[in-house]
Amino acid sequence: MTGSSIYRPPTAVQWASIPALGPWKGVLSALVNNAARFPFVVFADDDDTVTIYDRYPKARVHLLVLPRANISSISVLRREHLGLVRAMINSGKRAAELLSNAGMFPEGYKMGFHAVPSLDRLHMHLISCDMDSEALKNKKHWNSFTTEFFLPPEFVVSQIEEHGSVQIDRNRYEEVLKRPLACHKCRQSLKTIPALKSHIVNCRWADNEP
């Protein structure tokens, strides 16, 4: 099975066919609640989760795993939500395995939560490590996926297990988004997004790994 037969993000026309379903900040809840009306948005689903395509992908592959339960964000997670968080992680792993087997992750992938998400409704990102996308346009986009602002699922689970919630220093993480641009492979500093994108295509960091 080829990657193109598995990973089929909606076309611009399909996205445009979705009417306004409320405020933009609540768009994820609207999509989950109306998934049956717009099946082209859904990559996979099960009893606990819905995995959808990101409308503005920040890499060649970019999916969002959401719980069917209406949980607003990472900040409200408590120990009673651990089962649901693990269900989200398992859904992400299943999607990643399917895409990996189809050759969609030549540079690998990662899963994680934004420390301070911009949209309501708890969601976990599954994103390829190429960071190659026209929708990746500014420093905030870049740093939200290539710094500690992007919280690994294991960190989120451990925080809930140890503290009963995810400990987030909002001010600290918002400062992380303002850091200078740097290649996520070799950490070389670049001044602009175009320069960064040009650099990562030819970055030879992987060739020098031990």
Q: How many strands, what sense, and barrel or not for the largest sheet?
A: 6 strands, antiparallel
Q: Report the CATH C-level class of the largest domain.
A: Alpha Beta
Query: Globular, elongated, flat, extended or rod-shaped: what is the shape?
Result: globular
How many angstroms does the end-to-end distance come to?
A: 33 Å
CATH topological fold name of the largest domain? HIT family, subunit A
Low-confidence stretches: none
Cα Rg:
17 Å
Count the beta strands.
Answer: 6
- Please give the domain count: 2
Order of helices and strands: HHHEEEHEEHEHHH
Q: Structural class of the secondary structure composition?
A: alpha+beta
Mean pLDDT: 93
Please state how the strands of the largest beta sheet are arranged side by side: 1-2-3-5-4-6
Which band does the percent of strand residues land in? 5-15%
Helix content: 25-40%
What is this structure, in a nutshell?
With 210 residues, the chain is an alpha+beta fold. 34% of the residues lie in helices and 13% in strands.
Describe the protein in words.
The chain has 210 residues and is of the alpha+beta class. It folds into 2 domains: 12-179, HIT-like (HIT family, subunit A, 2-Layer Sandwich), CATH 3.30.428.10; 181-209, no CATH class. It has helices spanning 3-6, 12-16, 27-33, 82-101, 139-146, 153-163, 170-176, 193-202, and strands spanning 42-45, 49-53, 62-67, 109-114, 124-128, 150-151. Strands 1-2-3-5-4-6 form a 6-stranded antiparallel sheet. It is globular. The protein starts with a helix and ends in an 8-residue tail after the last helix. 28% of the residues are buried.
